[in-house]
Amino acid sequence: MNLPNKVAIVTGSGQGIGRAIAVKLAEVGDTIVVNDLGETAQGVAEEIRGINRQGLAILGDVSSTADVTRLVDQTISAYGKVDILVNNAGITRDQLLLRMSDEEWDKVLNVNLKSVFLCTRAVLRHMIRQRWGRIISIASIVGIVGNAGQANYASAKAGIIGFTRSIAKEVASRGITVNAIAPGFIDSAMTQKLSEKQRQELTSRIPLGYLGTPRDVADAVAFLASEEARYITGQVLSVDGGMSGG
Protein backbone atom coordinates (compact mmCIF):
# COMPACT_ATOMS: atom_id res chain seq x y z
CA MET A 1 0.00 0.00 0.00
CA ASN A 2 2.50 2.59 -1.15
CA LEU A 3 1.33 6.21 -1.42
CA PRO A 4 4.22 8.08 -2.98
CA ASN A 5 3.95 11.83 -3.54
CA LYS A 6 0.60 12.12 -1.77
CA VAL A 7 -0.29 14.86 0.71
CA ALA A 8 -2.60 13.94 3.59
CA ILE A 9 -4.34 16.03 6.24
CA VAL A 10 -5.21 14.12 9.41
CA THR A 11 -7.39 16.03 11.87
CA GLY A 12 -7.12 15.40 15.59
CA SER A 13 -3.80 13.66 15.05
CA GLY A 14 -1.85 14.91 18.05
CA GLN A 15 -2.45 11.69 19.98
CA GLY A 16 -4.27 8.36 20.05
CA ILE A 17 -5.89 7.00 16.92
CA GLY A 18 -5.14 10.18 14.96
CA ARG A 19 -1.44 9.97 15.74
CA ALA A 20 -1.37 6.29 14.69
CA ILE A 21 -3.06 7.20 11.40
CA ALA A 22 -0.63 10.03 10.69
CA VAL A 23 2.41 7.85 11.39
CA LYS A 24 1.07 4.93 9.35
CA LEU A 25 0.36 7.13 6.32
CA ALA A 26 3.85 8.59 6.65
CA GLU A 27 5.34 5.10 6.69
CA VAL A 28 3.67 4.21 3.40
CA GLY A 29 4.95 7.36 1.75
CA ASP A 30 2.70 10.34 2.44
CA THR A 31 3.51 13.90 3.31
CA ILE A 32 1.46 14.49 6.46
CA VAL A 33 -0.20 17.63 7.80
CA VAL A 34 -0.82 17.00 11.49
CA ASN A 35 -3.76 18.96 12.90
CA ASP A 36 -4.80 19.33 16.51
CA LEU A 37 -5.60 22.00 19.07
CA GLY A 38 -2.46 21.60 21.18
CA GLU A 39 1.29 21.39 20.88
CA THR A 40 1.19 17.58 20.75
CA ALA A 41 0.77 18.07 16.99
CA GLN A 42 4.32 19.42 16.81
CA GLY A 43 5.64 16.25 18.44
CA VAL A 44 3.87 14.02 15.93
CA ALA A 45 5.19 16.12 13.02
CA GLU A 46 8.72 15.74 14.45
CA GLU A 47 8.16 11.98 14.77
CA ILE A 48 7.18 11.85 11.09
CA ARG A 49 10.24 13.84 10.06
CA GLY A 50 12.28 11.36 12.12
CA ILE A 51 11.35 8.60 9.67
CA ASN A 52 12.47 10.76 6.74
CA ARG A 53 9.01 11.89 5.68
CA GLN A 54 7.63 15.40 5.46
CA GLY A 55 5.52 16.40 8.45
CA LEU A 56 3.91 19.76 9.10
CA ALA A 57 1.87 20.70 12.18
CA ILE A 58 -0.99 23.18 11.74
CA LEU A 59 -2.91 23.91 14.93
CA GLY A 60 -6.57 24.79 14.75
CA ASP A 61 -10.16 24.02 15.71
CA VAL A 62 -11.78 22.05 12.90
CA SER A 63 -15.26 23.05 14.05
CA SER A 64 -14.33 26.63 13.03
CA THR A 65 -14.78 27.63 9.39
CA ALA A 66 -11.91 30.13 9.63
CA ASP A 67 -9.51 27.58 11.11
CA VAL A 68 -10.42 24.96 8.51
CA THR A 69 -9.89 27.46 5.70
CA ARG A 70 -6.48 28.31 7.14
CA LEU A 71 -5.60 24.61 7.53
CA VAL A 72 -6.30 23.83 3.89
CA ASP A 73 -4.82 27.08 2.54
CA GLN A 74 -1.56 26.52 4.44
CA THR A 75 -1.40 22.93 3.18
CA ILE A 76 -1.82 24.08 -0.41
CA SER A 77 0.72 26.84 0.11
CA ALA A 78 3.28 24.39 1.52
CA TYR A 79 2.76 21.42 -0.80
CA GLY A 80 0.62 22.60 -3.73
CA LYS A 81 -2.16 20.06 -3.27
CA VAL A 82 -4.11 17.85 -0.89
CA ASP A 83 -4.77 14.25 -1.88
CA ILE A 84 -6.10 12.62 1.28
CA LEU A 85 -8.27 13.90 4.11
CA VAL A 86 -8.78 11.87 7.26
CA ASN A 87 -11.54 13.31 9.43
CA ASN A 88 -10.53 11.95 12.80
CA ALA A 89 -11.04 14.79 15.30
CA GLY A 90 -13.57 13.94 17.96
CA ILE A 91 -14.58 14.39 21.59
CA THR A 92 -17.04 12.90 24.08
CA ARG A 93 -19.31 14.60 26.60
CA ASP A 94 -21.18 11.58 27.94
CA GLN A 95 -24.41 12.12 29.83
CA LEU A 96 -27.87 10.62 30.05
CA LEU A 97 -30.22 12.56 27.79
CA LEU A 98 -32.39 13.99 30.60
CA ARG A 99 -29.26 15.48 32.16
CA MET A 100 -27.52 16.52 28.93
CA SER A 101 -27.00 20.24 28.52
CA ASP A 102 -27.31 22.20 25.29
CA GLU A 103 -23.56 22.81 25.47
CA GLU A 104 -22.78 19.09 25.78
CA TRP A 105 -24.94 18.35 22.75
CA ASP A 106 -23.70 21.24 20.61
CA LYS A 107 -20.00 20.77 21.38
CA VAL A 108 -19.98 17.10 20.41
CA LEU A 109 -21.99 17.68 17.23
CA ASN A 110 -19.75 20.59 16.21
CA VAL A 111 -16.42 18.87 16.79
CA ASN A 112 -17.43 15.38 15.62
CA LEU A 113 -19.80 16.13 12.73
CA LYS A 114 -19.66 19.77 11.65
CA SER A 115 -15.88 19.45 11.32
CA VAL A 116 -16.35 16.64 8.79
CA PHE A 117 -18.60 18.89 6.71
CA LEU A 118 -16.22 21.87 6.92
CA CYS A 119 -13.02 19.93 6.15
CA THR A 120 -14.55 17.89 3.35
CA ARG A 121 -16.03 20.97 1.69
CA ALA A 122 -12.70 22.78 1.95
CA VAL A 123 -10.62 20.04 0.28
CA LEU A 124 -13.12 18.99 -2.38
CA ARG A 125 -12.53 21.91 -4.72
CA HIS A 126 -8.83 20.97 -4.86
CA MET A 127 -9.50 17.24 -5.28
CA ILE A 128 -12.07 17.88 -8.01
CA ARG A 129 -9.53 19.96 -9.90
CA GLN A 130 -6.93 17.17 -9.82
CA ARG A 131 -9.59 14.47 -10.34
CA TRP A 132 -8.22 12.30 -7.53
CA GLY A 133 -8.86 12.19 -3.83
CA ARG A 134 -9.48 10.06 -0.77
CA ILE A 135 -11.76 11.19 2.06
CA ILE A 136 -11.90 8.88 5.07
CA SER A 137 -13.89 9.74 8.18
CA ILE A 138 -13.68 8.02 11.54
CA ALA A 139 -17.18 7.09 12.69
CA SER A 140 -17.83 4.53 15.45
CA ILE A 141 -19.69 1.33 16.16
CA VAL A 142 -21.74 3.54 18.51
CA GLY A 143 -23.08 5.33 15.43
CA ILE A 144 -24.44 1.97 14.23
CA VAL A 145 -25.74 0.32 17.38
CA GLY A 146 -26.10 3.25 19.81
CA ASN A 147 -24.96 3.46 23.42
CA ALA A 148 -26.68 4.65 26.59
CA GLY A 149 -25.31 7.97 27.79
CA GLN A 150 -23.90 8.84 24.37
CA ALA A 151 -26.86 10.19 22.41
CA ASN A 152 -24.78 13.19 21.27
CA TYR A 153 -21.77 11.09 20.26
CA ALA A 154 -23.87 8.38 18.59
CA SER A 155 -25.84 11.00 16.65
CA ALA A 156 -22.66 12.64 15.39
CA LYS A 157 -21.11 9.33 14.34
CA ALA A 158 -24.32 8.18 12.63
CA GLY A 159 -24.34 11.54 10.85
CA ILE A 160 -20.84 10.85 9.55
CA ILE A 161 -22.09 7.61 8.01
CA GLY A 162 -24.98 9.33 6.21
CA PHE A 163 -22.70 12.16 5.12
CA THR A 164 -20.14 9.70 3.76
CA ARG A 165 -22.66 7.81 1.66
CA SER A 166 -24.15 11.01 0.26
CA ILE A 167 -20.87 12.73 -0.67
CA ALA A 168 -19.54 9.50 -2.20
CA LYS A 169 -22.37 9.71 -4.74
CA GLU A 170 -21.73 13.40 -5.42
CA VAL A 171 -18.04 13.10 -6.28
CA ALA A 172 -17.55 9.57 -7.62
CA SER A 173 -17.37 10.79 -11.21
CA ARG A 174 -14.40 13.00 -10.27
CA GLY A 175 -12.16 10.15 -9.18
CA ILE A 176 -12.71 10.78 -5.47
CA THR A 177 -13.64 8.03 -3.03
CA VAL A 178 -15.38 8.74 0.27
CA ASN A 179 -15.51 6.11 3.00
CA ALA A 180 -15.86 5.79 6.75
CA ILE A 181 -14.34 3.53 9.37
CA ALA A 182 -16.33 2.49 12.44
CA PRO A 183 -13.96 1.41 15.22
CA GLY A 184 -15.22 -0.71 18.09
CA PHE A 185 -13.52 -0.79 21.48
CA ILE A 186 -9.96 0.42 21.01
CA ASP A 187 -7.24 0.25 23.65
CA SER A 188 -6.86 3.98 24.20
CA ALA A 189 -6.57 6.60 26.93
CA MET A 190 -10.33 6.31 27.51
CA THR A 191 -10.44 2.54 27.95
CA GLN A 192 -7.22 2.55 30.01
CA LYS A 193 -9.07 4.58 32.67
CA LEU A 194 -11.57 1.76 33.17
CA SER A 195 -11.32 -0.71 36.03
CA GLU A 196 -10.15 -4.23 35.31
CA LYS A 197 -13.72 -5.46 35.80
CA GLN A 198 -15.03 -2.93 33.27
CA ARG A 199 -12.34 -3.87 30.74
CA GLN A 200 -13.19 -7.54 31.14
CA GLU A 201 -16.88 -6.77 30.56
CA LEU A 202 -16.02 -4.87 27.37
CA THR A 203 -13.75 -7.66 26.16
CA SER A 204 -16.49 -10.26 26.72
CA ARG A 205 -18.62 -8.46 24.11
CA ILE A 206 -15.95 -8.77 21.40
CA PRO A 207 -16.01 -12.03 19.39
CA LEU A 208 -12.24 -11.92 18.81
CA GLY A 209 -11.76 -11.59 22.57
CA TYR A 210 -9.50 -8.54 22.82
CA LEU A 211 -9.52 -4.77 22.37
CA GLY A 212 -8.30 -3.29 19.13
CA THR A 213 -5.35 -0.91 18.91
CA PRO A 214 -4.99 2.48 17.23
CA ARG A 215 -2.75 0.75 14.70
CA ASP A 216 -5.63 -1.53 13.66
CA VAL A 217 -7.63 1.56 12.69
CA ALA A 218 -4.61 3.17 11.02
CA ASP A 219 -4.00 0.10 8.85
CA ALA A 220 -7.60 0.26 7.63
CA VAL A 221 -7.20 3.95 6.79
CA ALA A 222 -4.02 3.25 4.82
CA PHE A 223 -5.86 0.61 2.80
CA LEU A 224 -8.79 2.89 1.96
CA ALA A 225 -6.35 5.64 0.96
CA SER A 226 -4.47 3.36 -1.42
CA GLU A 227 -4.92 2.47 -5.07
CA GLU A 228 -5.86 -1.04 -3.94
CA ALA A 229 -9.13 0.47 -2.66
CA ARG A 230 -9.87 2.49 -5.81
CA TYR A 231 -13.18 0.68 -6.42
CA ILE A 232 -14.49 1.13 -2.87
CA THR A 233 -16.59 4.18 -2.07
CA GLY A 234 -19.59 5.06 0.08
CA GLN A 235 -18.76 2.25 2.49
CA VAL A 236 -18.43 1.89 6.26
CA LEU A 237 -15.66 -0.48 7.33
CA SER A 238 -16.16 -1.79 10.87
CA VAL A 239 -12.90 -2.38 12.75
CA ASP A 240 -14.45 -3.88 15.85
CA GLY A 241 -13.32 -7.46 16.41
CA GLY A 242 -16.62 -8.76 15.09
CA MET A 243 -18.97 -6.84 17.41
CA SER A 244 -21.21 -5.52 14.67
CA GLY A 245 -21.43 -8.89 12.97
CA GLY A 246 -24.47 -9.90 14.98
Would you kindly provide a written description of the structure presented here, covering whatever features stand out?
This protein is an alpha/beta fold and 246 residues long. It has nine helices and seven strands; from the N terminus they run βαβαβαβαβααβαααβ. It has helices spanning 16-27, 40-50, 65-79, 102-130, 142-145, 151-171, 189-192, 196-204, 214-225; strands at 7-10, 31-36, 55-59, 84-87, 133-138, 176-183, 236-239.
The helix/strand order is: EHEHEHEHEHHEHHHE
Give the quaternary arrangement of the chains.
single chain
Q: Characterize the largest beta sheet: strand count, sense, and whether it forms a barrel.
A: 7 strands, parallel
Briefly note the structural class of the backbone: alpha/beta
Show unreliable segments.
none
Distance N to C terminus: 30 Å
Averaged pLDDT: 95
Radius of gyration: 17 Å
Share in helix:
40-55%
What's the helix count? 9
Total strand count, please?
7
Strand order of the largest sheet: 3-2-1-4-5-6-7
Shape: globular
* Percentage beta strand: 15-25%
